[in-house]
Amino acid sequence: MSIREGFDKYYSNFGVRGVLHIASHRLFGYPKEIKVLPSGNRKPVRIRMNSTDIEVYKEVIRGEQYAFDLPFSPKNIVDGGANTGMAAIYFANKYPEAKIIAIEAEASNFAVLLRNVRSYPSIVPIHAALWNRDGEIVVSAPEGSHNSGKWGFMTHEGSVGDKVRAVTMQTLMQEMGLSLSSIDLVKLDIEGAEQEVFENTRWLKDVKCLMIELHDRFRSGCTNAVEPAMEAYKRLQRGETTFYVRKDVSSARDHIIFRRNR
C-alpha cells in the first residue's frame, strides 16, 4: 500500500483527524491508537494505528457486516474470535438486553478487547481459544506470513507459538452459568479452528443463528466440517460471512433482511 493510499484510508474512516494521527504516528511513533465514537454507539472504540484494526472497524462497524434483522431477539451470544471487540460492541448496541461472551485467543488483541468493552457490562471478555478439548494449545500467525496486523492468527496443537488456554463450548457455558441450550446466537471467526469446534456439535442443538467465516484458505476442509451439521438451517451469504438460521425460527420470514452496506 502506498503512502497516499494509507492516508486515504484513514481519511475515509476518520476524516482529517485520522490523517493527522497516522502522519504523527509515522513520523514520531505516537499516538499508538485512535479513539472514535461511531454513529449509534454508546462509547468510543480504540483502533491501533498502522494495523489491521482499521479494516475490522471498517467491515464490522462502518460496513455493518453483521447488520441483519432476525425473527427473534437473542439473549445469549457467543462471539468466538472476538479480536478487539468490534462485533461484540455491535451486538451490545443492537441487543442491549443480551449477554455477550467474547472469547479471543491472541494476547495483544485481547488486551485491546478488554479496554474496548470495559464500558459494556453485558460483554464478558474471555482470554482463551475455542477448541475440541479443555487444556492448552498455542496461537501463532499462519505459516509463511508476516502478520503484524493483529488478525489472522491461528490456534493449533504444538509448541511453536504463544500458549493459550483451550476450552470447549460446553465448558465455556458452564463457567458462565449457562446451559448449552441457552445459546441463541454464535458468531465464529476462528481462522481454521472450525474443524476442532465442529467435531462435537452438541452445543449447536438449540442455536438459532450461526454467523461464521469459513477458512478453507488457511486449512482445507473447514467447510466440510461445518456443512453436515447445518441441515436444520437456512444458509445465506454476505461477503465472507456465512449466515445459518434455524428453519423452525425463520418460518415467520422467508429470509434474513440485511441492511445495505455503507
Description:
With 262 residues, the protein is α/β, with parallel strands linked by helices. The protein has two domains: 60 residues, no CATH class; 196 residues, Vaccinia Virus protein VP39 (Rossmann fold). The protein has seven helices and 15 strands. Strands 6-5-4-11-12-14-13 form a seven-stranded mixed beta sheet. The longest helix is centred in the first third of the chain and has 26 residues.
Task: List the topology elements.
Layout: H1 3-28, E1 33-36, E2 45-48, H2 53-62, E3 68-69, E4 76-80, H3 86-94, E5 99-104, H4 107-117, E6 123-127, E7 129-130, E8 135-140, E9 154-156, E10 162-167, H5 169-175, E11 185-188, H6 194-197, E12 209-213, H7 222-226, E13 233-238, E14 241-246, E15 257-258
Parallel strand pairs: 4-5, 4-11, 5-6, 7-10, 11-12
Antiparallel strand pairs: 1-2, 3-15, 8-9, 8-10, 12-14, 13-14
